[in-house]
Structures are given as structure tokens and as C-alpha cells.
Design brief:
single chain; 1 helix; mainly beta; 14 strands; three-stranded antiparallel sheet
């Protein structure tokens, strides 16, 4: 049997289901305003979860009475209720957290601030890496860190066999500064006395001693030209970066919300 009420006010505790939640207090020690729900709970759009996927399931807001959020002086004015869950303050997860494990859709994790792992021993703003199950050793893991440098650089690498030029990607024509190109060559099988004869037409032209067939590995770096040059060192705090902050997106800071709108 269902009952329809206009408003319900509770000045003590609400218990729903069976159980004794000792942490909420009992008798004179009970915590005023606390709630125990044996579960499961579904909050938001009723049809978002076709099955019970967790103790608490939070879906997008589906109530037309909810106003568009606007806080005077806020950094930005979001679209009407864009999030299913908003947490103001610290949040903790005891156990594993899966992102899009059920539906495999949407973004991954967007963070404004430092991302901590390994009980706080690893700050992603200090280095960027990945950590995966080891591909060849059972029970081991493999971790690598990204290469970092004082420029916004890109690279290509590969092998040249019986050719005298390296073809650069077509998109490099408007992506990189051709004057910044550097080339490393490693001959295979014999010395060959390789040199870079010239660079042009989105190619790197090679020359070997006596015209011998060329067989070598190559590694080509270049600095991007579609963005402002990086300023590696500057005094002050992160807000004092002397370049164009709108072109920066770094772990630990979010420039999209730096100014009021």
C-alpha cells in the first residue's frame, strides 16, 4: 500500500529495512538527522538503470521543478543540472572504482586538481605514467612514465630500407616548425657513413658512402608550430606563468575556469 504525503519532516532518525546501524548511534547517542536504508536506492531518472547495479544508483535529474543552477560570483554558469552527482569537499573511495564499467560510454575521469594514487605516494602532476598488468610475467605489473622536455615536441620513428629519403607525415606540414627538425640515424649491418643531405618538401634526404644501399633506424623530432612556445622556467606560482595560459592544459590546474564569465 502506498501513501501520498505533501511534506514529511523528521527530527530524529529514519530507518528503512532491517538492520542495526551502530555507527549512527542508538538511544541517547543517536545522531540526529541520520538515515539508514538497507538498499538498494535509485535516485534520479527512474528508467536509467534497468537492473540493480549497486547499493546506491544515481541517475541524471529528471525533475522539471529543479531550477537552472546559478550562484552569484561563481566561476562559471553550467548548463541546467549537468551532473548526476556533485560532491563539495573531500571524497573517499574504499575499494576499487570503475569508470564506465557497465555502459562503456562517456568520458573517463576529468579532474580539476591533483590526482593521487598509491595512498598519496604518487601525484600525477609530478609525472605522467601508466600502470598495467605485466604482459609476460604473471603476478607482476608494468609501469612507464611519459617523456618530458622543455618544448611542445612531436616525433616519428621507423626504418629505412633501400631508400634515400624519409617521408614525414603529411600533417607535419602545418604542425611543426621545419627549422626545429632533428634527426638521429642508426645504421644496420654496416657503418654506411650516413648523413642527412637536406630537409625539404616534407622529406628527409639521406646519403651513404659510395652510394651503398641504405638500411637504418631513424628518429625524428620537431617542435610544434600550432601553439605558443613553452616557457620552461618562470618565477612565482603557477598563476604567474608569463605565456598564454589558454593554450595550457596541465594536471593540477584548469584554466577553463580561471576567470569569471
Amino acid at each position: 500500500m502506498a501513501f501520498l504525503f505533501d511534506d514529511i519532516a523528521c527530527g530524529s532518525q529514519i530507518f528503512c529495512g532491517a538492520g542495526s546501524p551502530i555507527c549512527l548511534g542508538i538511544g541517547e547517542a543517536k545522531i540526529r538527522g541520520s538515515v539508514f536504508v538497507e538498499g538498494p536506492q535509485l535516485i534520479g531518472r527512474a528508467t536509467e538503470f534497468p537492473w540493480v547495479a549497486g547499493t546506491v544508483m544515481i541517475a541524471p535529474l529528471n525533475n522539471p521543478d529543479a531550477p537552472e543552477p546559478f550562484v552569484p560570483g561563481a566561476l562559471c554558469r553550467p548548463a541546467a543540472n549537468p551532473f548526476s552527482l556533485i560532491v563539495s569537499g573531500n571524497a573517499g573511495v574504499i575499494g576499487r572504482m570503475d569508470v564506465d564499467e557497465l555502459l562503456q560510454c562517456g568520458d573517463d575521469i576529468v579532474a580539476v586538481g591533483n590526482v593521487m594514487s598509491q595512498c598519496g605516494g604518487h601525484v600525477l602532476s609530478a609525472k605522467k605514467d601508466f600502470d598495467i598488468p605485466h604482459p609476460t610475467k604473471d603476478g607482476w605489473r608494468l609501469t612507464h612514465a611519459c617523456v618530458e622536455g622543455p618544448e611542445a615536441a612531436v616525433y616519428v620513428r621507423g626504418r629505412v630500407r633501400n631508400k634515400k629519403e624519409i617521408d614525414l607525415p603529411d600533417y607535419w606540414r602545418k604542425l611543426i616548425d621545419p627549422e626545429s627538425i632533428t634527426v638521429s640515424l642508426t645504421p644496420i649491418g654496416s657503418h654506411q657513413n650516413l648523413i642527412v643531405k637536406r630537409i625539404g618538401d616534407n622529406k628527409i634526404y639521406l646519403q651513404s658512402n659510395g652510394g651503398l644501399p641504405i638500411d637504418c633506424f631513424y628518429h625524428v623530432f620537431a617542435e610544434r608550430i600550432d601553439t605558443e612556445k613553452l616557457i620552461p622556467e618562470y618565477p612565482g606560482t603557477i598563476e604567474d606563468y608569463p605565456g598564454d595560459n589558454s593554450q595550457r592544459s596541465i594536471v593540477g590546474y584548469h584554466y577553463d575556469v580561471k576567470e569569471d564569465v
